[in-house]
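Notebook, student rotation project (T.W.).
Task set for the rotation: take a protein with a known small-molecule partner, predict the structure of the complex, and write up what can be learned from the model alone. Partner molecule chosen: flavin-adenine dinucleotide. Sequence and SMILES entered below by T.W., checked by me.
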Amino acid sequence: MRTALAKLSAQPLDLLIIGGGIVGSGVARDAAMRGLRVGLVDQSDFASGTSSRSSRLLHGGLRYLAQGRLGLVHEASVEKTIIHHIAPHLAQPLAFIFPTRRGTEWKLWKLRIGVKIYDLLCHGRNLGKSTSFSAAKTLEELPQLKPDNLTGSVRYFDGLTNDARLVLDTLRSAEAHGALLANYTRLESSTRADDGWLCKLTDQLSGESVDVSARCVINAAGAWADRLPQSQVKLRLTKGVHLVIDRDRLPIADAVVMTEGSRILFAIPWGQRVILGTTDTDYTGPIESPRCEPADARYILDVTNANFSVKLNTDDIISTWAGLRPLIADPKGRPSDISRAHQIMTPQPGWIDVAGGKLTTYRLMAEQTVDLAAKQLAKNIPKSPTAEEPLLSDDSKFSGILPPEFSREAVEHYCRNEWAVHLADIMIRRTSWRYYYRNHAELARQAAQWMREICGWSEAEESREVSDYLAACSSR
Ligand SMILES: Cc1cc2nc3c(=O)[nH]c(=O)nc-3n(C[C@H](O)[C@H](O)[C@H](O)COP(=O)(O)OP(=O)(O)OC[C@H]3O[C@@H](n4cnc5c(N)ncnc54)[C@H](O)[C@@H]3O)c2cc1C
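Predicted structure of the complex:
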């Protein structure tokens, strides 16, 4: 039995958090920093759900401004500046150019006003100052842009992050403050006990089960949130797909907003690559394995080819990922119109559901959840320090927006200090090597060899890890 899991069952917890995505991790960090006895489990690897499959943006959401959702944009805009403050290594200011064209619903004059409001909604402290360009200046900035009907553009700022790294660094901070964390540990059932809940957890690696007592359970299970025993969450899942291509094929200095009718997509520079996305379609397939279907890839390539004078095709795709948005159910309306607001509910005493929201607003969601949990526990706890306290106490060469250098040292670090158990944990969540490098399979074989030495695997385990990893890649 792994140490964290053994410790989890040793004494009753104040909070047991189900889900090690960004929301659960944020709650664990906040609660541990405020002195609560906290445990967190994830049925798979940390960040293996939606929190490693996003567009990696810290954003207020210019699109939501167009929908008149000022409160939501304000909240997220402030949060993006807070993440920049507490985790500068995971919040790079990123300029976006939004070109406007005659005959479309995206009017230059409206966007000019929009981006000024956008700057003001961060209390005037946006990550950079917005501006606007004429059509000629826009083409100077973006020579590959199609010139047809161009009226000009606006340039505004958001942040680029690394979603999975944000989760892992938040968890490292939570652990440093005393939280007990176990990946590959699933909540099977929860029953009411004297002063809280008795939860049955199963170690997915050994098959063993333990009973854990917790005075309060936090359901932070993302797309799975409506499947937990006491949950009252109602979700509508939509799928979003991203493609990674070589930056030589689309040499953009700033991120670019691409339009397709009323939808917007992004081309986001990421080191020597560009991330293209995303789609937004209702999803009813298996939650564990949303995938990029050929039609999803075709759509994104077509939109990119329509916005730029390029002819991208499927051979240009280095990698793809697909994620599910755990949106609060609204059976009406198009997927893109459903609110990205979050919801925190107490369906029963000592059980809190926290759902919806965005990567960008995770810290606020966590603070509000822990405030509510303290009321449930009838405990006086200090105010949340998470808007001020840096996420990491030291500079880490193993955590950033771009993948770390491919090395044995890095692999060893993730195995020893960051709960990596399987090859995919390292190739996908810890490093993004899988998405960044076309020859990721070759790198994976080398990383597996190193893991064999570090983790004491047998030859058979090493080859099983490689084949499991390649199978996981083909389903992403
Ligand atoms: C395509 C796409 C693009 C996006 N882009 C952005 C963006 O650019 N910026 C932004 O701010 N937001 C973005 N978002 C939204 C953001 O990614 C999500 O809101 C966020 O990652 C959700 O985090 P979560 O912790 O709620 O869920 P998840 O990350 O899915 O975590 C839930 C975890 O619960 C675990 N779990 C489930 N059931 C159990 C159980 N029984 N026992 C134990 N563990 C369990 C799962 O394994 C999972 O790891 C995007 C979303 C998508 C899909």
